[in-house]
Amino acid sequence: MLPLRLSYSPGRLICFLVGFFVLRAHAKDAVLTVPEQVSLSPNMYTQQLSISWVGTGASAFDIMILRTELNETVFHETVSSSADSVTGRHMWNWTSLEPLECTSLSVRICSRDGARTSEWSNTQILRGMDLPSNDRFQMFPQDRIVPVGINTTFCCIVEEGKEFGSLRYGNMVMNTSRLSRRSYASTAFLQRASARTGTNVVCNDKLKSKITGAVIFVGYPPQPSDLVCETRDLISVVCQWNVGRDTHLYGRRRTNYTLNKRLCNSSSHQAKLRICTLDNWEGNWTLEAVNPLGKSVLTDSAEISSRINPVAPISLTSINKSWNATVLWGWEHSTYLTLALVCQVQLNKSMQTFSGVGLQSAFLPNLYPDKTYVVQVRCGAQKNFWKWGNWSQPYSFKTQPDAPVAPDAWQYVNTDGSGTIMWKPTSDQDSRGQITGYDVTLWSPEQQSQYLEIPPTKTSVRVSLTEFNCSKVIANVVAKNIAGESPPARVVIPLQVADRKLMTVSKAVYMDGGFPLLWLNDTNSSCGYVVEWYDSLCQLDCPLEWMKVTTGTTNVSLVSANFQPGVKYNIALYSCSSEMLQRWQGYSQELAPSSPVPQLVTTQQDSDIILTWGQIPVVNRRGYLLGYNVYISDGPQLELLANIPNADIRKYTVKGLSLGSYKFTVKAYTAAGEDSGATSSISPTSYTDWLILEILASLGTTALFLAVITLICYKKRKWVKKTFYPDIPEPKLPGDWSSTQGPLDVKPSPHSLVHVVHKPEWDSSKEVLVVIPEEDEEDEVPDDTDEATSLRYYNQVVDERPIRPRYPDSSESSASSLDSASTDVTYTGIQTTGSSLVFPLDPQDSTEGLRTQGDLPVGGGDADGGYRPQMHPQLQSEDFSQAPDASAMELEADGPSGYKPQVNWSLDSPGEAAENRDAAPCLGSPTSVASTQFLLHDGESEEHADEKRHQTSSAASWFTNLISSTKP
Description:
5-stranded mixed β-sheet, disordered C terminus
């Protein structure tokens, strides 16, 4: 083909362009036509408004919808709509949020071409129910059915002349908006499923004199599942399905089901499974479920041989024997007689399976005599098994009785010579029928047997064993029922029972629900063992529990439902010949003691507090006592003082407590805890009081003893004097003593009692008095000697201060007498009064007096062992104010080592001291070593001295006067 060639001339091209622009300018200047013949078609249930009009070629239109009365724009948008090819009309649908009845709506349409629009069409009005001519109280929408979760707007049209009050959705007051003069609207958002009768929406006026309302039903569309069809009689078909979730729509709004176009409605709306039966098997099934909110479709198909679900067997019977039975049944449909079946027989809780064509019976072995059984049967198709059919009704039957088994028997022997034969109640399985009684036979090889009949309600019998003169007795126990007697149960009863308390007891620990026991195998126990246990507090006819163990077993866990917490059990192992092999004791559960420790006593011993208490009774211990806790009360709290981990120690000493009041609590404890505690209080007294009482008691005892000794000595004073203080003969001095001896020339004292004898020569062969210095005082002198005896003498009282005679002439005379080497009797002391121990010296003669005294070696010794005056130092009188010098004080301090005279002399009174101020003190008299009397006696001076001593003596001098000797 040759190519087409176009030839263009310039003239033609210019004409084409000019024509094109002219046509275009004409089109722009053309005016869009106004839509005509506008019509409105409302659907009040769906709240949809269909608008149709006639247009002139335009495809875009502006639609405006107004609420007529208030002139409020509801909708104003540009929509596209093409004309119908047949009618040439445009159509567009608008769905209103509010019901279309709520108020009048005005609709206008204009054509649009880009930015150009035509004039608006004539207004078309859809009249609402709020027109003045319709003055009734109204609510819209009415009886609306909506799905769960959507929003629904309700409007209330108030009666003419009334004011709007409120709008309620159920119990909730809703917010409203005004649509017209009388119309008010409100929206319920995300609505929940309503109740069976729907949800009420109520509107009332302001005065609540008028009310109107509507009901809305909120639910779900149908959603069935699991459609299954099967046959029960091999002819008809039964289909069932699950209705799924509740639609919350009932009555005429409920879901309707059709199966293969046949209506299948169930009468029960609560059933989850729906069943529909068809007369003939069709092989294919279609289920339709429809309600106001939607529709759902299910299908199923199958062959009849693969969907057989047998019905339940009927008319069950049985043929019963002691140890087996045969169960028989029938079928409702004769078609089952040729069907291969597999059946399950449930006997009590066991399951057995049987199979066969047209199966109608089952043999049940291994049953027990005289026992009731309950049986049920169900079957299924053996070929192409689909499911098990329904269970038959329960059927019960009872087997025939049989002779019982031998009872489980044991024995218990008391210490009083009696025994108890006991056996466990026979179980239903072992009794094999109703027990009518027991026969107990006692016999021994040496003696005739005893026969006892026991009623069926008893399980023990007490027998006297003193009638048997043998080592053991054998007891046979036989149980009886209507079918016969059991084999005898043999029990050996030893007549010589060993003391159970002598056997060592081991501790059994409860764990894992029992007492685990372990023992060594006893070769002599060829028929097994028996383990018995009972309450340890039981002493006579104890209710036993026992368990028999087969031969070769050496361990067992002792389990019993009768174990009680807090109870100690005695457990014993026996051979089958009733010989005890081993003993245990144990608690199934230890508890805290049920009572506190008894007799809690607190006593004081010196400064300590001693607590003692008694022992908790065994019945109240309820566990192994581990020890005691001792507490002291600190207000409401208890403070632990001590833990005593030994239950045998029931004493505790509390030390270091101060005075006060104390309360002590003692608690015994087991592994489970402490008891409630025993409390005792005490207020300890001061230990010093006790010590003072003891001292006073000791002093009293000593004083009583001394009083008794003194009384005895007083009664026997002559014997005491003669024994301990015999008369010592007066010393014999050499010289001429026949002449009356004058007093010493000691001026001005007229009371000197010692006469000084001067002898120019000293004969050592004669017995003389020898001055013993103090340092030699401790030397012992032998009792028997051939040498001349030197008499030792001592003064009674020591005054360590130096004697200071006031008168030089007396001092010189005394010094001259004392300074003589031939003097046989030396002055033992110069007695002075207390006020004359320190003499103030005369100023004229002080020097001479001091010299004379200081140069005098008194007693022939030095300063320490020399002469010591008798008088004790006393305070100076007011006439002598001069204090003693230091040498005198030192001499006083050395008093214990010097000579101490026996008798103290003192002036009778300060008056006598004043009268005798000019007189020198009297010189003391030398005394014997064993006598309290003066060696040189002056009757007159002694008389005056005795008179003064009588006036100034104390109570302590009576004993010295008592035992002293008096001269005639």
